[in-house]
Design a protein that fits this description.
The chain is an alpha+beta fold and 82 residues long. It has a 3-stranded mixed beta sheet with strand order 1-2-3, covered by helices on one side. 50% of the residues lie in helices and 22% in strands. The model has no long low-confidence stretch (mean pLDDT 91). Strand 1 and strand 2 (36-41) form a beta hairpin.
Length: 82
Protein backbone atom coordinates (compact mmCIF):
# COMPACT_ATOMS: atom_id res chain seq x y z
CA UNK A 1 0.00 0.00 0.00
CA UNK A 2 2.85 2.38 0.80
CA UNK A 3 4.30 1.85 -2.67
CA UNK A 4 0.98 2.82 -4.25
CA UNK A 5 1.01 6.08 -2.34
CA UNK A 6 4.41 6.85 -3.86
CA UNK A 7 3.07 6.45 -7.41
CA UNK A 8 0.02 8.54 -6.54
CA UNK A 9 2.23 11.29 -5.12
CA UNK A 10 4.46 11.18 -8.21
CA UNK A 11 1.46 11.81 -10.47
CA UNK A 12 0.16 14.53 -8.17
CA UNK A 13 3.47 16.43 -8.05
CA UNK A 14 3.92 16.35 -11.83
CA UNK A 15 0.31 17.33 -12.55
CA UNK A 16 0.44 20.22 -10.07
CA UNK A 17 3.67 21.46 -11.68
CA UNK A 18 1.99 21.51 -15.11
CA UNK A 19 -1.31 23.02 -13.95
CA UNK A 20 -2.18 26.70 -13.81
CA UNK A 21 -4.56 25.97 -10.91
CA UNK A 22 -2.67 23.34 -8.86
CA UNK A 23 -5.21 23.41 -6.02
CA UNK A 24 -7.82 21.86 -8.31
CA UNK A 25 -5.67 18.82 -9.16
CA UNK A 26 -7.09 15.68 -7.52
CA UNK A 27 -5.44 12.28 -7.77
CA UNK A 28 -7.37 9.22 -6.60
CA UNK A 29 -6.25 5.62 -6.60
CA UNK A 30 -8.36 2.50 -6.99
CA UNK A 31 -6.48 -0.62 -5.96
CA UNK A 32 -7.38 -4.03 -7.32
CA UNK A 33 -5.78 -7.43 -6.96
CA UNK A 34 -3.81 -7.28 -10.21
CA UNK A 35 -3.77 -3.60 -11.10
CA UNK A 36 -4.02 -0.11 -9.65
CA UNK A 37 -5.94 2.60 -11.48
CA UNK A 38 -4.82 6.15 -10.83
CA UNK A 39 -7.42 8.77 -11.69
CA UNK A 40 -6.26 12.33 -12.37
CA UNK A 41 -8.75 15.18 -12.34
CA UNK A 42 -7.90 18.83 -13.01
CA UNK A 43 -9.59 22.08 -13.97
CA UNK A 44 -10.81 22.14 -17.59
CA UNK A 45 -8.35 24.95 -18.30
CA UNK A 46 -5.46 22.72 -17.21
CA UNK A 47 -6.43 19.56 -19.07
CA UNK A 48 -4.79 20.79 -22.25
CA UNK A 49 -1.52 21.46 -20.44
CA UNK A 50 -1.55 18.11 -18.68
CA UNK A 51 -2.37 16.20 -21.86
CA UNK A 52 0.01 18.29 -24.00
CA UNK A 53 0.32 18.62 -27.75
CA UNK A 54 -0.72 15.40 -29.44
CA UNK A 55 -0.89 13.79 -25.97
CA UNK A 56 2.86 13.94 -25.41
CA UNK A 57 2.68 14.99 -21.74
CA UNK A 58 0.04 12.36 -21.02
CA UNK A 59 2.12 9.69 -22.76
CA UNK A 60 5.23 10.71 -20.80
CA UNK A 61 3.28 10.68 -17.53
CA UNK A 62 1.91 7.21 -18.30
CA UNK A 63 5.44 6.02 -19.09
CA UNK A 64 6.66 7.28 -15.71
CA UNK A 65 3.75 5.60 -13.92
CA UNK A 66 4.47 2.30 -15.69
CA UNK A 67 8.19 2.54 -14.88
CA UNK A 68 7.52 3.28 -11.20
CA UNK A 69 4.97 0.47 -10.97
CA UNK A 70 7.28 -1.99 -12.70
CA UNK A 71 10.03 -1.17 -10.23
CA UNK A 72 7.58 -2.00 -7.42
CA UNK A 73 6.53 -5.20 -9.27
CA UNK A 74 3.01 -3.92 -9.81
CA UNK A 75 0.86 -2.78 -12.69
CA UNK A 76 -0.68 0.68 -12.80
CA UNK A 77 -2.81 2.58 -15.29
CA UNK A 78 -3.26 6.34 -15.42
CA UNK A 79 -6.67 7.71 -16.38
CA UNK A 80 -7.04 11.44 -17.04
CA UNK A 81 -10.63 12.48 -16.33
CA UNK A 82 -12.54 15.71 -16.93
Amino acid sequence: MEEDIQIKELVEVIARALAEYPDEVVVKEICGQQISVIELRAAKVDLGKIIGKEGRNAHALRTLVNAAATKLRKRAVLEILE
